[in-house]
Every structure is written in C-alpha cells, then in structure tokens.
Design brief:
Layout (H helix, E strand, L loop, with lengths): L1 H70 L4 E2 L4 H6 L5 E2 L6 E15 L16 E17 L4 E12 L4 E12 L3 E7 L45 E10 L2 E10 L17 E2 L2 E2 L1 E2 L3 E10 L5 E10 L5 E4 L5 E3 L3 E11 L9 E12 L2 E12 L2 E12 L17 E14 L8 E13 L9 E12 L1
Length: 465
C-alpha cells in the first residue's frame, strides 16, 4: 500500500510539473510578443518624431531665408558681453524695413575767428572799428537711404539735421532722388545744385562789407557767384533733372521760393524789411529760377562748365513808387563759366587743383561781373576774387550801419584768401584742422566810407564720423 501511495504521489507531481512548465512557457512567449510589439511601436513613434524634426527644420530654414530677404541683410548687432549673453538668450538688433541700405554719418565743424567785422558771439569790444573775436559751428548727422535694383535703377533719400553752438536746430539737406545709374536722375527737396564758382579750400572767405555768397546786403557791394538759383533755400525748394552721356553732364535745376529772401534786412531805420538799392522789397508772388548747367570732361583731370540762371516770373517782388505804381525788381539773369584742373587722384602726393571762375549778372539797375582763380597744392590753398559792380540807380538814403555804397556808380572789390590743411591730427585720419585768412577791399571814385576794407583769420576744427 505504501508503494502504491507513493507511486500515485509521484505521478501527480509529474503531472503538476508538466502543467506548470507549459503555463510558464506560454507566459514568456506572451511577454516576448508584448515586448516585440512595444519595440515596434517605439520605432514607429521615433520615425514619426524624426519626420516631424525634418519638417520643422525645413520650415525654419524657409522662414530664416524669408526674414533675410525681407531685412535686406541690414541687421545692426549689438556687442553684448559674454556674461550678458548668458543671461539673455537673444541679441538685440536694429531691424530696418528691408527696402534698401541705410548709411549713418556726420561731421563736427567749429570755428574760432578773429576779424575786423563785429563779432556774433564773443564781443571783446563794442567799437566796430576794432577787431572782434567770433565763435560758431555745428554738428551734422546725416542719414542716407538707397535701394538699387539689378537693372541699375535706384531710389533714395538724404536728410542732414544740424545742431549749432547757439542751441538751435537747423537743416542742411532734405532730398529725395531716383533714376538710372550713370544715366539720368531726378531730385526734389532742399539741396544745392552744381557749384559754378568753386573756391577750392575756402576755409574763411569773406568780402568787403557784409555780403554772403548767396545773400545781397544792400550798400555793401555784391560778389556774384552764380548761386541765386542754386538752392538750399530757407523759403522754397528745388526740382532738378540731370543726364549723363559719356563725358557730358547736363542738369536743369528749378528753384521756387520767396524771392525777397535774396536780400538781407536793411540797416536803415526808414526801411522795415529787406532792402535793394535803398528801397524796401514787397513780395507779390514766388520767383521761379531756372538754372541749366552743362559740364564737359574731356579727360579725367580737366573739366569745363557753362551755366545760366534766370527768374522767369514777372512782378514777383518790387517796390511802390511815389505815384503808387508797383515797380518790378525781380528781373535777374546770370551767366557763368568755370574751368577745373584736378590731378590729385592720379598723383595724391603732388597733385594740383586749379579753378578759374567767371560770372556776370544782369539785374534791375545793376550789373555785376566777378572773376576768380585759386590753386591748391600740398594742403595749401591760395585764391583771388575780383568783383565789379555798376549801380545805375540808388535811392537817396543814409545807411545807419557801415553802409559803404550810398549812391550810383561803379565799385571794385578785391579779395585774397589762403588756407592750410593740417591732416590727421593725433594720427586720426578723421580729425583735421584748417587755418584760413583773407583780406578784402572796395575801391571807387564815388563816395564811400573810410572803413572800406575787411580782414580776418580762422581756426577750424573738423571731425568726421
């Protein structure tokens, strides 16, 4: 009995072990199948993630390309220290609109003057017959924008605000231009057209009396320089068309402005306003100056220019006579010729710049002729200006302040000027100092004041940035 019982127990154990082994084998297979399924699912998810990353990279590259094209490659990156870069994940940028390039520049110009005329800022002595010390100057900041196309067409602008030492803000140029490179161009705004009376390195050039280059001061004599219709007016604007054909250049400038601004305020107590030949000028309408210029450059060093300027509007300004009739004084036509030799590009060390200028003005009851020559060599400039004024009518008035011309007649004005350029001060190529001086004298057989000459000297500090 014991043997049979033992046999039965052994048989049951074997049957149980066999069933347990089968059960364990099935569980492992199931687990392997589950693991294999999970691996396949993980690989599928990895493939999907990789595809998403590739799609994101393609999209990001397209966005970056689009941003660069829109910005015109004009970001201005700040120089951020490494410590700050760690704190800030992005570097600040000045992002432009993307329509072309922008140039920012400027220059500083301050003058210290000693001259025979009354000073404008520092007056050491109120006696006008003695020398005076002046100080003046300004800081200019320029912004030039331009967009060029592959076919050579372009459009752009320029604005140049000024801050002077007297605490006021002014403006030099404010213009818009467009055209075809080396072909044609149109400009509109505030600017100066071609210079028909270059004075070379004119650091300090004044004239007998108180006559500026583009302003007629009554009773002081007039040095006419073909600049009445040139532009950069405080009372109007320019519209200029130009064309380049080989070595020929043509331009036509039109200046629309208040014509009475050509004349300065009178020193005579009987005249309240701008004076010409002893009379107050009354504005009726704006003047329109037309100023064609032709330049021919047969060689890279030599050039010739011819021009005229004329107001084409009748009765723009004048005066009312004793009969109550309006007398036109706005008929003014000028002519000019200039020749320039400049070989400084081919010979920077010993190159010479030489100018020969002449101009003639036919105005109401006045004819003015001017001729000048100047030369620049090795930073030294010398020049001479001769002016001949013929006044056929002058109101019988008494000038209160240094009026040299008081009646009809002919007057000659002689002016000599010189300057020296001190380059690269403190080894800075953008810092220069100019030394300038002039002497001017008026002569006539008519009655003129005894104070008929002017002289002065200047130190100019010039810094570019």
């Amino acid at each position: 009995m014991k043997k049979s019982t033992l046999a039965i127990a052994i048989g049951l154990l074997l049957v149980a072990n066999t069933g347990f082994a089968k059960t364990t084998k099935m569980t492992l297979e199931q687990r392997l199948e589950q693991l294999e399924s999970r691996l396949e699912a993980a690989e599928s998810r990895a493939d999907q993630a990789e595809q998403k990353v590739q799609d994101l990279q393609v999209q990001q590259a397209a966005e970056i390309k689009e941003m660069k094209a829109a910005q015109g490659n004009t970001p201005v990156n700040g120089q951020t220290p490494a410590e700050e870069t760690k704190k800030n994940l992005t570097t600040p940028n000045l992002v432009l609109s993307g329509y072309g390039d922008l140039k920012i520049y400027g220059d500083v110009e301050f003058n210290m003057d000693a001259e025979s005329r009354r000073g404008t800022l520092t007056k050491l002595n109120e006696d006008r017959s003695t020398e005076q010390w002046d100080m003046d100057g300004r800081i200019l900041i320029g912004f030039d924008g331009i967009r060029k196309m592959d076919n050579g067409q372009f459009a752009g602008f320029s604005i140049q605000p000024l801050a002077d030492m007297y605490g006021t803000m002014n403006l030099d140029d404010a213009r818009f231009n467009f055209g075809q490179e080396n072909d044609w161009k149109i400009e509109v705004g505030r600017f100066e057209a071609a210079d028909m009376f270059p004075l070379n390195q004119d650091t300090f050039v004044e004239h007998s009396g108180n006559t500026a280059n583009d302003l007629y001061t009554d009773g002081q004599g007039y040095i006419y320089m073909m600049k009445e219709g040139r532009g950069r007016s405080d009372a109007g604007g320019n519209f200029l068309m130009s064309k380049q054909i080989d070595n020929w250049y043509f331009e036509l400038n039109s200046l629309i402005e208040d014509g009475t601004t050509l004349f300065s305020d009178s020193d005579n107590d009987n005249i309240n306003g701008r004076a010409y030949h002893g009379r107050e000028m009354e504005k009726e309408k704006n003047v329109v100056y037309l100023r064609p210029v032709v330049n021919w450059k047969p060689t890279s060093e030599l050039s010739f220019s011819a021009a005229m300027e004329s107001n084409v509007v009748n009765n723009a300004y004048g005066y009312t006579n004793s009969k109550g009739e309006f007398v036109d004084q706005s008929d003014r036509t000028g002519y000019g010729l200039t020749m320039t030799w400049d070989n400084t590009k081919t010979d920077p060390e010993n190159g010479v710049v030489f100018n020969l200028n002449t101009a003639y003005l036919d105005a109401n009851n006045e004819d003015d002729f001017t001729a000048a020559t100047n030369i620049w060599w090795r930073n030294i400039e010398l020049g001479y200006i001769y002016a001949h004024n013929k006044i056929s009518e002058f109101e019988d008035v008494v000038c209160e302040n240094d009026c040299i011309i008081q009646e009809e007649g002919t007057y000659d004005i002689h002016t000599v000027h010189a300057s020296y350029w001190i380059k690269n001060v403190m080894n800075m190529e953008n810092f220069n100092i100019y030394l300038g001086t002039y002497y001017s004298k008026i002569q006539s057989d008519q009655k003129i004041s005894s104070d008929d000459d002017r002289y002065g000297a200047r130190v100019r500090f010039k810094y570019y940035f």
